[in-house]
């Protein structure tokens, strides 16, 4: 589905029989310069709950209708395209039920354009991702008619140049079921220890202390935001070594290769 319908490339596959899981990494460019999706197959698991908190993954395409026709021809689930202002978009589902939002755009450096998560307090979320993770607020959109507010955050100079996090707040809804399917966001950093200290000081809950992963020796730190969404910061130099030659139903990790955090 990801290769034939969404046009992604299978960048690498990692089989770990001793740990009983398999990873596949897919995207539109090399992992050291683009956002990718990590699919995880855990042995013995054939189903996960997506929950109500996960929104979708946004993919920029030159022609929405063309992609819809392709997915429909292969038996995929699609919805009719919608035009909002000058922007055409449509939703599709992969075979396991993850939603993708196809957004019609011209040529773009990063087709993997957004990951959408629902949150219980938009102001709290914006402040947290600014203070704890050093992200920039690109746009905030209030829509009283739909009783929703959206915030778009990331690390580049413009949200049109990078993968962004879209946070969706529905008026009066404070909690969501995060499910078991969506795993985490992974972001590169030059120093996981400094990143851990800064995130913790800003109120992040550390769920895995900074240090090397057994087997891979890649240093990471794992944090939770106020809604329970998990972010993993990965040491850039260790990740480059992990990409060298010869060096998971599934869960989804969105892995934006964003500008490294300072500090």
From TrEMBL:
**Family annotation (Gene3D superfamilies):** 2,3-Dihydroxybiphenyl 1,2-Dioxygenase, domain 1
- InterPro entries, alphabetically? Glyas_Bleomycin-R_OHBP_Dase, Glyas_Fos-R_dOase_dom, Glyoxalase_1_CS, VOC_core
Q: Which UniProt keywords apply?
A: Metal-binding
Q: State which residue ranges cross the membrane.
A: none
The lineage's top-level taxon is Eukaryota
Range of residues in the leader sequence: none
**Species name:** Sphagnum jensenii
Q: Which residues form a coiled coil?
A: none
- Protein name in UniProt: VOC domain-containing protein
Using the record's annotation, list all stretches that form the VOC domain: 1-105, 111-236
